Model the fold of this input.
Amino acid sequence: MNVISKNPPSISTKTLALYVEWQLKTKHIPKNLRYSIGSRIENLMANLIENITYAYHIDFHSRVKIILTAIAKNDTLKFMIYALHELKGLDENNYFLLSEKVEEIGKMLHGWKNQIEKQNHQNK
Done:
């Protein structure tokens, strides 16, 4: 199953868009921040992508736990992007662009979790 090509845009597509946008912004981040907090943000994005991909392939009953991990990664990512902005590593426009994408992914993750919990409840 190709999760990237779902219609409407899937959470994987949105996460990929966030990652691409991040890559376009990293060259404008001062080196001292790029290789410290920027690296941490990069790792969080990779972990988020990994958790989302894993959640698509894990059995239905274990999926909520992985999605909760992805939600935690996404929340941490949101905070770290804010911290980078506060440290003057991102200008306001880039901060808002990235944080809007992270927020949308968070809403999708919560919706996915709620949908699975509802399906689990109906199956009992």
In short: The two ends are 27 Å apart (CA to CA). Confidence is low (pLDDT under 50) at residues 1-7. Residues 10-123 form a domain with the de novo design (two linked rop proteins) fold (CATH 1.20.1440.60). Residues 55 and 62 are 8 Å apart (CA to CA).
